[in-house]
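> forwarded from #structure-qc
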């Protein structure tokens, strides 16, 4: 049997730097755990625009459809702000999500013990926090029609449409219930059923799907209250399921609770392929951070943890994923810190690539 395949799309800004560290980790698993992958690499975002005039070439899209998992770094940068909307770096990312039909976006927000002081919230509010946001990723206002900027009388009007079909809600709800079953059997669904019909339907469908999961304690919350509760008492949540736009906002909020955006991975999953693996793309939650790109300052952990999610969700290697996550915790507990993690209590300052090396060393020590 051939090795499982991975397409790496480093993208822009710090993307290539953090991805270089992921490659060290992938190589380690090949050399030391007999888990070899066929890795190929291609362009996305501004990097693809510079070469092809589009943020994702058709050949790259086709490759992404064929591999077992895509790992993406980050896209965008000030250099591309002037581009037409249709070729902006973000469009490359959105095309991947849409054409691969990656409808379930898993965004864990986990507070690492060693970093609890970094949260803007009091330590006891966030210490031990471990929640999972499941964001619908291929529909809603991001993709609904009609959309555009139109002339209306003597002025223009900007239009986007929030649109959800029952089947779109159902499949992401099912993904969230399945996750809840594997975690603490607690799911909170967030929408604005008080003002939006799409929210009314969302609540109805999620409730209906819940009948198949009687063990899961399901609750519903208006998304604005959800934002407040996330900041007030985040530990009341375990799994949260919500739509594309609310999920975008709420996941940034949840991410910041944990103290560092440089730590958070994500998985975007679609339907199972012929080989049983889900269509999947893994990416850090952080952006391309152009202000620190190329300086060796970036924290590669979010991207490395994204590979851990790939091990767990695409390659059925939950134990190896845990090994990698534990190695990262160990390195943090030893005080090893990239610049974004350096607080008043100090620590061992390291560059992006030194952090990768430390994690590889911790993996070696785990054997
Ligand atoms: C995210 C980002 C993207 C989004 C952008 C880059 C298009 O904010 O993944 O959360 O809005 O979905
Ligand atoms: Mg976002």
């Amino acid at each position: 049997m051939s090795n499982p395949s991975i397409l790496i799309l480093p993208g822009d800004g710090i993307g290539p730097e953090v991805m270089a560290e992921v490659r060290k980790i992938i190589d380690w698993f090949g050399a030391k755990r007999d888990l070899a992958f066929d890795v190929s690499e291609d362009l996305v975002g501004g990097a693809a625009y510079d070469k092809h005039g589009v943020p994702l070439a058709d050949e790259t899209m086709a490759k992404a459809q064929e591999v077992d998992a895509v790992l993406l770094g980050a896209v965008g940068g000030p250099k591309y702000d002037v581009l037409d909307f249709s070729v902006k770096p973000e469009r490359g990312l959105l095309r991947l999500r849409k054409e691969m039909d990656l409808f379930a976006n898993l965004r864990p927000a986990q507070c690492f013990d060693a970093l609890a002081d970094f949260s803007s919230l009091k330590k006891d509010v966030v210490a031990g926090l471990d929640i999972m946001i499941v964001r619908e990723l291929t529909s809603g206002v991001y993709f609904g029609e009609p959309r555009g900027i139109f002339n209306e009388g003597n002025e223009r009007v900007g239009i986007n449409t929030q649109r959800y079909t029952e089947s779109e809600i159902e499949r992401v709800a099912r993904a969230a219930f399945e996750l809840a079953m594997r975690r603490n059997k607690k799911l909170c669904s967030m929408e604005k059923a008080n003002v939006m019909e799409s929210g009314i339907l969302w609540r109805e469908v999620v409730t209906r799907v819940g009948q198949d999961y009687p063990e899961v304690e399901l609750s519903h919350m208006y998304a604005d209250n959800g934002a407040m509760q996330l900041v007030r008492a985040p530990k009341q949540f375990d799994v949260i399921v919500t739509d594309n736009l609310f999920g975008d906002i709420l996941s940034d909020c949840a991410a910041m609770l944990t103290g560092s955006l440089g730590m958070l991975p994500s998985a975007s999953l679609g339907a199972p392929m012929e080989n049983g693996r889900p269509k999947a793309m893994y990416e850090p939650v952080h952006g391309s951070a152009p202000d620190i790109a190329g300086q060796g300052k970036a924290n590669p952990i979010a991207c490395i943890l994204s590979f851990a999610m790939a091990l767990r969700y695409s390659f059925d290697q939950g134990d190896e994923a845990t090994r990698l996550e534990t190695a990262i915790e160990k390195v943090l507990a030893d005080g090893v810190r990239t610049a974004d993690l350096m607080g008043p209590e100090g620590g061992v300052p390291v560059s992006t690539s030194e952090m990768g090396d430390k994690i590889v060393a911790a993996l070696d020590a785990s054997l």
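QC bot note: Residues 1-105+264-367 form a domain with the Isopropylmalate Dehydrogenase fold (CATH 3.40.718.10). The first helix runs from residue 15 to 32.
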